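Please check the following for our workbook:

***
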Amino acid sequence: MISIFTATLMLYVHCRPEEIAATTPKLERCVTDMDNWMSANRLKLNMDKTELLWAGTRYNMSMLNDSGPSLQLNNVTVNASQHVRVLGVHLSSDLSLDTHVSSISATCFYHLRCIRRSLDADSAETLVHPFVTSYVD
C-alpha cells in the first residue's frame, strides 16, 4: 500500500516596513530549517509550489519595490507575488478581496454557461440576475 501525504505549510511573520531587510534572512533560515526537518522525516518541501506574499496597507506596500524582496531558498529564488491562494481564498498584498471576488465570479459565470442549456428561461434569469445587479451597483 502506498500512502500519499500532502500538507500545506504556512508561515506568518510580522514586521514593520523598515525591518524587512532584517526579516528576510530570518524567513529564509526558517524555511530552510523546515525543509531540513521534512527531509529528516522523509518528506519533501515542494519549492515549485512555495509562494511568498508581503502584505500590508497600501501605504506600507508602496514603500516596497514592486511587491517586496524575494527569498533565496537553496538554489531556488522565490519572488513575491501580488496575490496567493490559500485554502481556496485569494489573498492580495493590500489585503483586499478584489482578486478573490473576481475569481469566484468568473467560476460562477463559467458554471452558469455550462448548465445554461439545461435551464428554462425563468430559472436562468433567476441565477444570472444577482451577478448583473452586483456589477451595476
Q: What stands out?
A: The chain is about 45% helix and 10% strand. The first helix runs from residue 20 to 40.
